[in-house]
Structure formats: structure tokens, C-alpha cells
Amino acid sequence: MVIRSYLFFICFNYFLFLGSTSHASTYPVESDVIGNVDHYVVKKEDNLYAIARRFDLGIVELLVANPGVDPWIPKPGTILSLTTSHILPEQRQGIVLNLSELRLFYFSDDHTVMTFPVGIGRDGWQTPTGVTTITNKRSNPSWIPPQSIRDENPDLPEIVPPGPDNPMGQYALSLGWNRFAIHGTNRPNGIGKRSSHGCIRLYPEDIEILFKAVKVGTPITIIDTPYKLGWENGTLYLQVTPTQTQGDKIAEYRKPHSANNSPTIYAAVKQLEGDTDISWPQVEEAIARHNGIPVAIGKRNAQALYHPQ
Beta 276-278 vs 33-35: how paired, if at all? Predict the structure, then answer.
């Protein structure tokens, strides 16, 4: 019965996802967890980069959730897990970007949230953490390469006009930090990994949505945490993602050499143990897999649920 139900679920999702896209889903902020883990059956001529873009995923999160799948020639009929469920960050105002997660969240004033995969600064050009704001909005921006980038590529012109050769794409949101922006891209395969000189890249269709939704002055918080805890309907979930360094190895199609910082994660979970019945094997599984999929690790215990009058 379980097998039949699972196969029905997979077949249903296969037909549901044929020719569909999953960009810019908007979720009400009613709990700490949004979305559901979906599945997709690989077809002939598919590749993981195209599938990632179709379902608004980054390439690293798709690779880590489906270890062993060839990114360029995945076997037709392979059932992929789509990491379309997320635990929300603790900060829930304006734009929040988690570098380890390679994902941006936009919390609007109507208590809803949108989320998008991003490309961030590669090693040596790291995207900084901290708090800033959007200071300017530009459509069809020109790009003025800083001298440090021109030193890498002396053939670059002083100004790159709007068009297909402009790495900023069609929209840019300038940040309060000099030379940093959230913008589109002319290289969508770089979304979901460390691929930029420090700026934050979105798929062209995603930056258009975000550009229209935000305004100058919107706060931006950039964090770097490879794990999050959150509640939904009395169940505690743990989401563990690769670190930035592990993500680089995954993007190169190599397995990470080590697990995440387990003592830090164990300590965070243990702080909730008094009011929660924790399943430590589930905690260990989430840490070992660190695939970005939220795992149920406990429930509020009877003592926490009892509130005498």
C-alpha cells in the first residue's frame, strides 16, 4: 500500500510538472516552515541546470539533494528530490540572504514571503555579511567594472552597456555597501553557487519580480548559517545545508570531505530539549545528509503543552 501510494504520488507530480515552472511562489508567514518537498522524473534531454531553473532552485541545492546524479546527462526516469521546502530565517524584515543556503527571502509588509536562489561571491571575492539597505533601483543598468576586475581581464571596456554581454542583466538593486548590488545575470548556470565577484545574482525572471516588489530603503540582512530550526504544527524541524566551502566542492561534482559543525548544531537543538521530545537519530540524519531538506526531529512534550489555568 505504501509503495502504491508513493508511486501514485510520483506519477502525479510527473504529469503536474510537465512544462510547468515554479518561480516566485508567495507563502503566508504562518509558521517557521514554508513549501513542500516535491519530486520530478527526469526526461530525455533534461539536465540539472535546466531543471534547477525550471523549479527556481540553485544548482548546488539540487545536486546535494540528489547525490550521484550526472548534472549534464541525468538518466531518464530518475526521480529527483526538489528542495522546495525551507525553514524561514529568524530575521523576517525586508530582504534576508543566507549565504550558506544560497537563498534569498523577501518578507513583505502583508506578512508573506517570496524566496529565490542566488549566486554569491566566489572564494576571494566573498559576499559580506551584515545589515544594509537598497539605495537605488536601476533598469537596464550599465556595468562599470572596478579596477580589480579589469586587472583580471584587461580586455574589459571601462563601461559595459546594457545588453546580452552585461553580467548585471536587466535589473539592479544597489546596496548601501560600495560596489555591491543584487542584480540579474547573463550566466544563469551560476545561480545557486559561489560564482560572482561579490554581488548577488538572481535568475533573470526572479530579479524582475524582486525589482518590482521592493523599494528604495528596504532593509537587507545577510547571514551565513548552515542550519536552521523551526516549528510547524507542534513539530520541530531541522534544516542543514552545506557550508560555502562544501558548496564549492559540490558544484565541482565532488562529495564534501566532512560533515557540518555538528557540536554547534547539537548545542542549538539541546537548548530546546526541555520542552521538546527530541529524536536524536533524526538530528544525526539531518546533519549527515546536510541536503537542505527540513527534517522533523521532535515534538512539543506534554509538559510544554499543559498550561494550567
Answer: unpaired
